[in-house]
Amino acid sequence: MLPLFDTPPSPHKPQNPELDRKSSFGSLKPYLPRTWLIFFVLFLQIILLLIARNYHISTAVIIPQHLPEVAAITAVDGGDTECPSGKVFVYNLPHFFNTELLENCHELNPWGSRCDTYSNDGLGRPATKLAGVIPESLTGAWYWTDQFASEIIYHNRMLNYRCRTLDPESATAYYIPLYAGLAVGKYLWTNNYTAEDRDLHCHTMLKWVHDQPYWKKSNGWDHFITMGRITWDFRRSKDDDWGSRCIYLPGMRNITRLLIERNSWDYFDVGVPYPTGFHPTSPSDVETWQEFVRTRTRTTLFCFAGATRGLIKNDFRGLLLNQCYNSSGSCRVVDCGGSKCSNGTSLILESFLGSDFCLQPRGDSFTRRSIFDCMIAGSIPVFFWNRTAYSQYEWFLPGQPESYSVYIDKNDVLNGKSIKGVLESFGKDEVRKMREKVIQYIPRIVYAKPHQGLKGMKDAFDLAVEGVLNRIKDQEREGFKW
Ligand SMILES: *[C@@H]1O[C@H](CO)[C@@H](O)[C@H](O)[C@H]1NC(C)=O
Ligand SMILES: *[C@@H]1O[C@H](CO)[C@@H](O)[C@H](O)[C@H]1NC(C)=O
Ligand SMILES: *[C@@H]1O[C@H](CO)[C@@H](O)[C@H](O)[C@H]1NC(C)=O
Ligand SMILES: *[C@@H]1O[C@H](CO)[C@@H](O)[C@H](O)[C@H]1NC(C)=O
Ligand SMILES: *[C@@H]1O[C@H](CO)[C@@H](O)[C@H](O)[C@H]1NC(C)=O
User: Fold this and answer.
1) What is the pLDDT of residues 464-477, one digit of tens each?
2) Cβ–ligand 2 contact at 480 (below 6 Å)
3) Does domain 283-445 sit in CATH 3.40.50?
């Protein structure tokens, strides 16, 4: 199912393209109606005017407090200068496609309830056990976020996005808030469901969307969706194989998909960062964190976090593990067997915070959440496959791989190359420079906590949506659409 080659993808239009609610749910706050907004702005202006007339001296103090609010409101409807790439219309899909899945969180997987996992608007439970490891002022910014929560996080952000429009006529892009990952999650581990069960949500959504008048505007080229799992979970070719067929359904053809792992050959797949546990509430949270990781004392050269039990000798991860154990003093191993690393342990964060480098082999698929856990902790990632990051997250990571990461070809490791040897060859200053690059990119790979995003700082969500809007502009070039 996973392609075996590791060739760089075509970043733009591929040569061979066919290779391939607004809702009443409490947390997804709908926008105020437009007329209400107009009245509110007028009202605010009258009040300001009255205050200014009556209290000349205090005007300077009062106006700056109110101005940002007025600006934020006008950005919803007017103000094209705020949204030079255009605006997004969010489809009001029936609840069946999103919030109903969340409300039935106890049946999302066969082993137990996922209600805690997706609580707090998808961020999960507060990571109280990190107190003492992270700066005190940031204890409220960390959660045990599930790696598959992005469709919920994106939906909440999209409903409050500053470049959202309620007028479909004026939209540049159309967002489809289907929770495709949650919808298929419960069918992945038991085979007593039919292929139709697995494709039900996606199939029904496509029928619904194709019936909308705005589909025809561009044959779906201006439509996009977040799918919270890796692309391979939606690419079932035979009925009794793994996953859903969602991406292979003919009606999906022109829809851009934001995924935590993309198929590097598919133009319509866009890789976005996995959600991590860090959800800053303000730019100052980000800056506090950046300073914290910059000034850490790092006592080990590198670390490896992964499930260590049951790794066979010839498995690549097994080789890394052996090298790590054999570099005692220089390498730290964190055993993430079961769900130890996703649930209630600070061990993994501590080992990233204490190491200069972290090893990021591929696992069952090319990417891992650990890449982002590592970088957020200011540790420099070491990659063995290009598709682990370089051809996945181009909108989010630096263009020069060597500026923030180390690449060691997997074949060299198989032939016995010493990882410790490679990493020790970097001078202190080189390491400092690479780490600084990683730290500089932290805002671009986190998902902010406020549904409105961070004021004056772009996070992963902002970059993803701007990327989609810009792509739609590119597509307008003559002969682009195929
Ligand atoms: C499939 O099996 C699981 C447990 O293995 C069970 O909970 C579920 O009800 C079964 N579903 C169907 C449709 O039979
Ligand atoms: C996708 O776009 C192409 C080119 O605009 C169009 O011919 C095709 O019908 C579209 N596919 C779907 C499923 O709408
Ligand atoms: C550990 O490393 C040493 C020196 O590189 C090597 O001789 C030895 O065989 C290694 N041991 C294992 C278990 O890999
Ligand atoms: C995760 O943590 C919660 C709360 O501490 C606990 O109820 C749950 O059993 C834990 N799950 C696992 C798999 O350890
Ligand atoms: C992978 O990326 C590295 C670093 O950018 C590059 O040197 C190498 O040629 C790439 N390998 C393949 C197979 O594309």
Assistant:
1) 999 999 999 988 88
2) no
3) yes
